[in-house]
Amino acid sequence: MEDIVAIVLAGGEGTRMKSRLPKVLHQVCGKPMIEYVIERLEELNIDKKLVIIGYKGSLLKEALGKRVDYIWQKEQLGTGHALAQTKEALTGFKGDLLVLSGDTPLLTTQTLKGLIETHRKRDALATILTAILKPPTGYGRVIRHGDGTIRKIVEEEDATIIELANEEVNAGTYCFKEEAIFSALEKIRPENVQEEYYLTDAIEVLTRKGHRVEAYTTDDSREIIGINNRKDLALANKIMREHILDRLMHNGVTIIDPLTTTIDQEVEIGQDTIIYPFTIIEGKTKIGRDCIIGPAVQIRDSRIANKVEIKNSSIQGSIIEEEARIGPYAHLRPESRIGRRAKIGNFVEIKKSTVGSQSRVAHMSYIGDATLGEDINIGAGTITCNYDGFRKYPTFIEDKAFVGSNTNFIAPVKIGRGAVIGAGSTITEDVPPYALAIARGRQKNIKDWAKKRRKKR
How many separate domains does the chain show? Predict the structure, then answer.
């Protein structure tokens, strides 16, 4: 989009969030709320994007990187003061300014496009985004002239009783002609309850001079929601989740109960996958077709292939190949890879390990820093003892090995192809291929020992 610069106001602390983190870095469905704003601007093909930073601004720079340019607002004296900081950076620019807040993640590309088009079509000096909100609590009220043009915006703290009854509210998103807004900003004063320089006061400055100020009203009032506290954050997450789930269901994913399902914005899920209740899918997870996920599953930043089944389990940063079965009550920690048709069962923990195709770790076992080949059976209660208090050590188990229950592998150790490990063994040395390894004390029965003990008592 030509002859337009976007300015994102993100310098405030957000004191009502009661947080050490800048408000705009709080997450909505897996991403910082300001990330959504920047993505909308990228979709509009706006090349120059200025972000006003102040409170802990270095954290914003770390989060957004080189996608935008930054302007420091050393003192947070209000929205009007924030916009004024960009004047020097815009020297020589003659065009439109799209000004919006970093705490409005629900704004859509279509709405922003409509605002810009209205501004240019009506050749206004300023155009504001508005919505009809019932109740309008917490927002500045839009006051119009009889012909429908904008007269002023009154912040809620400064509004009269009559003005408070107005249900048309200011969304905090604007289009300005560059040459008009900076001259108007020079005339505003902090004569209000907050003692701040309100950007909204610049609207009244323009209208008093007889300039035309227009409005574009969005049909969906929910998208203008600004996040000022934790309750607003929860509401924004709820609305965003609804959008995400609607999109997935429209694309062929079955979600049994949307009210108990949480899926982040960047998650991808294939057709005919079924998501059962109390499931949370986060981060950049990608799930294939024809999977069964849930109930009560948590997945983060993982890749799940087609026809995988996961029940009552927790998975982070892992890869699961086709037709594998996970759970119930399994835990896959980061950097784990589960092969095709493998089975990870009840109360099994996998940590930074590879489990080959058709291998089975079915019951109450811990596999850490291990590489398991194909078609291996791991008996219940098996443990890879990978940590000596200082370093981690690997365990290697080759294809078709059979490991009896309650086996301890004292790493580093290697088990050869087709080897058999007797139940209850503690393996401290490598086992050759196809060998039987038994490492346990020989059983000794003492005749009548219990009878004599009882008699002695």
Answer: 2
One DSSP character per residue, 222-271 reads GGG----SHHHHHHHHHHHHHHHHHHHHHTT-EES-GGGEEE-TT-EE-T
Query: What is the predicted pLDDT for the residue at 149?
Result: 86
Catalytic annotation on 243?
A: no
In a domain, 325, yes or no: yes
Cβ-in-10-Å burial (0-12, 13-18, 19+) of 113 comes to middle
**Residue 19 belongs to a domain:** yes
**Residues contacting 375, CB < 8 A, separation 6+:** 356, 357, 358, 359, 399, 400
Q: Tell me the CATH number at 219.
A: 3.90.550.10
Q: In this structure, is residue 232 part of a structural domain?
A: no
Q: What is the pLDDT of residue 71?
A: 96
CA distance 333 to 331: 6
Per residue in 161-184, pLDDT (tens digit) is 999 999 999 999 999 999 889 999
Which pTM was predicted? 0.90
What Å distances lie between residue 45 and 38, 48, 149, 205, CA to CA? 11, 9, 29, 31
Of the three residues 224, 259, 280, the one that is the final residue of a domain is 224
pLDDT (0 to 100) of residue 210? 85
pLDDT value at 192 more than 80: no
Query: What's the CATH code of the domain at 404?
Result: 2.160.10.10
Pick from 62, 114, 52: which is nearest to 89 by CA? 52
Residue 202, phi then psi, degrees to nearest 5: -65, -30
Could you say which of 26, 119, 243, 363 is catalytic?
363
Residue 160 identity (one-letter amino acid): T
Task: Assess whether pLDDT exceeds 90 at residue 84.
Answer: yes
| Residue 387 belongs to domain spanning | 313-437
Domain presence at residue 281? no
- Average pLDDT across the chain, whole number: 95
Strands 48-53, 408-410: pairing kind: unpaired
**Which one of 175, 193, 224 terminates a domain?**
224
* Contact between 200 and 155 (Cβ < 8 Å): yes
